[in-house]
Amino acid sequence: STMIDNPTGYGRIVRSSDGKHLEKIVEEKDADDQIRKIREINSGICIIDSAELFRALTEVTPNNSQKEYYLTDVFTILIDRHGKQAVALEVAPDPIEVTGVNTKEQLQELETEYFTRQKN
Fold first, then answer.
1. What's the pTM value of the predicted model, to 2 decimals?
2. Mean pLDDT for the chain?
3. What are the counts of helices (DSSP H) followed by strands (DSSP E) for the chain?
């Protein structure tokens, strides 16, 4: 995960009350106002036991605002239904290392940042 100033469009990392464990990842379009305030985002990079992953994938449903199958739902399934624990590690101190591109505007922002850095 990483922290970004404007997390609009990204899945948010929801942590346990003590901050040590991942509770779930909530996609932007499914987030309420409280979750949208979270600045820690899902980088899309994960390490997961393949047997657990494939078990959870059979339980993923498109029960969300976009009617899509969210890969990130495997964490909620494993945590809530199978009693597993997960952690989210903030391993990218520079958000540009894991920033995704879903729109032309996001691509423009990253290109601008990249070329700005190249000049310095």
1. 0.84
2. 92
3. 4, 4
